[in-house]
């Protein structure tokens, strides 16, 4: 039997070790039963110990990937991840204005878990002025929220303030991810919705360094749920539960910031009939 499947698009960089970036997006979307297409913006030579090298792709092949997808597929939601530099952010912005790929999740990837820079400093202004205003949901972690707002974030009140500042840049919905608050005993994300409603999404903080790709996975899951037609609030709640399962039911791969167990949510979903 042929099935009409929801289709989503990842616009991101490749992580050769398979844990973060586009590879995390593909695994997540597949697990959420959504067909995943890709626009590759940059390639990294990367493992769980760090990023050894990275190279952005030429504009021509990025534009061509967008056109190929728009000419044939029926993308219902998309997300951005690593965009490398200002020029590449602009290329992506132009294509997102040209083609309708549905709701956009912007994960403003700046620095990898191991500390390597994945976005040049000059790109921050382009992201703030040109990409975030297109976003249905923007999902910075705490260091990224600090860069986007010029605030220092040490408390929940600071996260709320940062969320409001980022919403004022033009994003409809904002999540300030709390994964980097290492001293807290919960992993608490602040969610600010388009209608002004806000809430905290909290889970037990798992004491592990195997969190490579958590942010990519969260944003890819939101995109997948939106591609299915799920509402934004429900998509965000599902994505948080999905990520929590991937960390809780961990796997041992590599010697550093290891990747997630992308299939762990199968058990949770089966038990809870989600
Ligand atoms: N140690 C942890 N235990 C439980 N949840 C975590 C942990 N680290 C991160 N998370 C969750 O993973 C998601 C991604 O957060 P974060 O790690 O801050 O993003 P990024 O990968 O962009 O740095 C968030 O929902 C956050 O709460
Ligand atoms: C290509 C690519 N994209 C994104 C990330 C961020 O992932 P994380 O912050 O979990 O290391 C990464 N490490 N590599």
TrEMBL record:
Instruction: List, alphabetically, the SUPFAM superfamilies matched.
Output: Ribokinase-like (SSF53613)
In the Enzyme Commission scheme, what number(s) does this protein have?
2.7.1.49, 2.7.4.7
The signal peptide annotation in the UniProt record is none
The reaction(s) this protein catalyses: 4-amino-5-hydroxymethyl-2-methylpyrimidine + ATP = 4-amino-2-methyl-5-(phosphooxymethyl)pyrimidine + ADP + H(+); 4-amino-2-methyl-5-(phosphooxymethyl)pyrimidine + ATP = 4-amino-2-methyl-5-(diphosphooxymethyl)pyrimidine + ADP
> Pfam families, from UniProt?
Phos_pyr_kin
Q: A single GO molecular function, which one? A: phosphomethylpyrimidine kinase activity
Does the record's keyword annotation contain Nucleotide-binding? no
Q: Which UniProt keywords apply?
A: Kinase, Thiamine biosynthesis, Transferase
InterPro entries linked: HMP/HMP-P_kinase_dom, PM/HMP-P_kinase-1, Ribokinase-like
According to UniProt, this protein's pathway is: Cofactor biosynthesis; thiamine diphosphate biosynthesis; 4-amino-2-methyl-5-diphosphomethylpyrimidine from 5-amino-1-(5-phospho-D-ribosyl)imidazole: step 2/3; Cofactor biosynthesis; thiamine diphosphate biosynthesis; 4-amino-2-methyl-5-diphosphomethylpyrimidine from 5-amino-1-(5-phospho-D-ribosyl)imidazole: step 3/3
Highest rank taxon of the organism:
Bacteria
Q: Does the keyword Transferase apply?
A: yes
The record places domain Pyridoxamine kinase/Phosphomethylpyrimidine kinase at 15-261
Checking PANTHER family in the record gives:
HYDROXYMETHYLPYRIMIDINE_PHOSPHOMETHYLPYRIMIDINE KINASE THI20-RELATED (PTHR20858:SF17), PHOSPHOMETHYLPYRIMIDINE KINASE (PTHR20858)
Family according to the record: Belongs to the ThiD family.
Q: What is this protein called?
A: Hydroxymethylpyrimidine/phosphomethylpyrimidine kinase
């Amino acid at each position: 039997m042929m099935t009409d499947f929801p289709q989503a698009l990842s616009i991101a960089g490749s992580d050769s070790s398979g844990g973060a970036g586009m590879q995390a997006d593909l695994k997540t979307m597949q697990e959420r039963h959504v067909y995943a297409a890709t626009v590759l913006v940059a390639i990294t030579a990367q493992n769980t110990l760090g990023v050894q090298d990275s190279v952005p792709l030429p504009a021509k092949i990025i534009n061509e990937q967008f056109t190929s997808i728009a000419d044939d597929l029926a993308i219902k939601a998309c997300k951005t991840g690593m965009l490398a530099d200002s020029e590449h952010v602009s290329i992506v912005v132009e294509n997102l204005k040209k083609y309708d790929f549905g709701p956009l999740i912007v994960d403003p990837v700046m620095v990898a878990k191991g500390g390597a820079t994945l976005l040049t400093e000059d790109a921050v202004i382009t992201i703030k002025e040109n990409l975030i205003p297109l976003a249905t949901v923007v999902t910075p972690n705490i260091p990224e929220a600090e860069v986007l707002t010029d605030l220092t974030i040490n408390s929940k009140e600071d996260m709320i303030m940062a969320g409001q500042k980022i919403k004022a840049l033009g994003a409809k919905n904002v999540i300030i991810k709390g994964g980097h608050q290492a001293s807290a005993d919960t992993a608490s994300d602040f969610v600010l919705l388009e209608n002004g409603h806000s809430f905290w999404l909290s889970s037990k903080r798992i004491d592990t360094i195997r969190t490579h790709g958590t942010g990519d996975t969260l944003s890819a899951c939101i995109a997948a749920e939106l591609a299915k037609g799920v509402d934004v609030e429900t998509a965000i709640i599902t994505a948080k539960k999905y990520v929590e399962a991937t960390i809780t039911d961990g796997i041992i791969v590599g010697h550093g910031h290891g990747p997630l167990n992308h299939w762990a949510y199968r058990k949770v979903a089966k038990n809870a009939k989600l």
